[in-house]
Amino acid sequence: MEKTFARPRSLKTVPFRYCPGCGHSLIHRLIAECIDELGIREKVVGIAPVGCAVFSYDYFNFDILESAHGRPPAVATALKRVMPQKIIFSYQGDGDLAAIGTSEIIHAAARGENISVFFVNNANYGMTGGQMAPTTILGQRTTTTPGGRSAATEGYPLRVSELLATIEGASFIQRVSLDTYGEVTAAKSAISRAFRGQMEGRGFSLVEILSPCPTDWGFSPKASLEWIRTAMKKVYPTGVMKDRDKGI
Amino acid sequence: MRKKLLFKKGNEAIAEAAILAGCRFYAGYPITPQNEIPEYMARRMPEAGGVFIQAESEIASINMVYGASAAGVRAMTSSSSPGISLMQEAISFLAGAELPAVIVNIQRGGPGLGNITASQGDYFQAVKGGGHGDYRCLVYSPFNLQESWDLTMLAFDKADEYRIPVMLLGDGVIGQMMEPFRPTKYVRPRLPKKDWIVNGCKGRAPRVIRSLCMGPGELEQKNYDLCKKYDAIRKKEVIFDEHNVDDAGLVVVAFGVAARIALSAVKELREQGRKVGLFRPVTLFPFPEKRIAEMARKGKRFMVVEMNAGQMVEDVRLAVSGASGVTFYGRPGGVVFTPEELYKKIKAEYSRKK
To answer: A75 and B63: CB-CB below 8 Å?
Structure first.
C-alpha cells in the first residue's frame, strides 16, 4: 500500500515535548513540510528564538542557530547577506518579536532583507509562565494582568502585521491562524509562499500565526481554538496584509 | 630599498588592517570617536567583496556579527564606550556559542553619555567580562598605529584559533591621530578548520550553534571547557613591552595611550639619571601578572598610570600581592594627561621616601 502521510524529512524522529494542544509542534510540522516540498532542506538555516521554541533545534532536521532574545532578524540579515544562496528563516514569538525585538524586525523589513520570518502570536509569554505580551488582548487575564489587560494601565495590543505592512521594504505579510483545518491549510500556503518569495529574491516576508497556548491560557486545547476564533481573531483578523506583487 | 610607510588616521588603519586580514563582514552604528571605521568600511568592504551594513543600533550590529560569524565569515564591529555597553549581552552569547568575532572599542569618557574625548574607563568592562556569566575576551591595547595595524590582524587570527570574541581596546587618541607606520603584510597562520559553521546541511548531519545548556551538568562542563581555553590563552598569549625596567627602582605601569605619554616622561627622567622604567601590558586579558610578580619580588615599586579613576591598578595589586608598593595616578572623565604632568607626578613618586 502506498504511504501518503509520513513524517517530513525536515523533522527529526523524536516526539515533540511541547504542551498538549500547543501550536508550536503544528507550526514546526508545517514549516518542515514546506521545506521538504521545496527541496531546500540542505540549504536552510533556521534561527531559534528565546522562548518555548528555542527547543526547535531538537526537532528540526537541518542547521539551526540560536539567537539572543529579539535579535533573530539581525542575525538572519547577516546570514543571508554572507550566504545569499541559502534559505534563512527566523522563528519568533510575540515577546521576542513584538516587544524586545521591535527595532530589529522593523529595520530588517525596512532594509527589505531577503529573509522569511515566522511570527508565533499566542498573546502571552509562554515559556516564562504566561505574562502579558504586547499582543495580549484587552481584558485577557495573564499572570501580570491578573484583573485582565486594561487599556488605561497596559495600553493596547500591538498589531504587528498591519504595522509591518506599512513598510515599503516588506514584500509579503500575511496573518494566519491554527483554529480550523481550513486555516491550517492557509497557514501552510503562506509559509510556503514566504519561502518561495525568498528563493525568487523578492525580499522580506513575514507570516504571523495565531497559535494556541492552552497551558498558560488555562483552557483545554479545544477551548483554546475556540478562544482564537471568538476573541483573538476580532483583534487580529487573518488575511494578506501586504503582497507587493499583487499590489496589496 | 626603503620600506614604504603608510600615513593614515588611526580608525582607518584599523579598518584597512581588518580587510587585509580577511574581514568580510562589518556592521556598525555611528558614534564618536570611531565614525571613520564604518565610513571607511562602507567604501572599502564592497571593493573587497564583503558586506557592510549600517545597523539600526549597536545591539543589531553585534548580533549581525554573531550571524556572519556563525556562517564562517570573519566579522567585526566597532563602537565607542556607550555602544560597547549595549553590545555586552551579545558578546556573552558569542563567548557562550564559541563564535569568533572582533570588537573594536575606541573609548570615550564615561559614565553615561560622558564626553567624546579619549579615556580608558572601560578597562573593567573589557577585561572582567562586561556581559553576564563566566567568560573572557582576549583584549589587545595598542599604543601607536603600528600596533593598531598589527594587533587588528592578530585579533582575527586569535578569534578563529580560540573561537572567542577578541576586543581591540583603543581610545579617542588612537582612533583620531595620524602617524606613519609600516603596513605589515598579513600572513595567514595555520588555523583549525571551521567544521562547526551553519551553512546548510548538504552532505553532512545538521548542526546547531547554541549557548543554551539545560541538561544536568551540561552548563557546568561547558564552563570548565571555556576555562581550559582561557588557561591556554593565559599561558600562550601574554604580550607586554618594557623600557628600562631592569635597574629601575620605580616601574611605571600603563597601557595604551597613557603608556605612550608616560614613556616620554620616563625617558626624560632617565636622561637625568633617575632609575625609572616603564612596563606596558599589550594584552590586558591575559594580564602579564607573572612578569609583574617577578619584578615585585626583586623589590621594585610600581606606579600605575591610567586615564581613569583606577582600574588596571587592581590587577597590578593582585599580581604584586603585597610584595611591594603600588601607587596610582589617574585622570578620569576623558582627560588626557600631558607628558609634563606625568613627569612631575612620576618624579615626585620616585623621590618619595619608601
So the answer is: yes
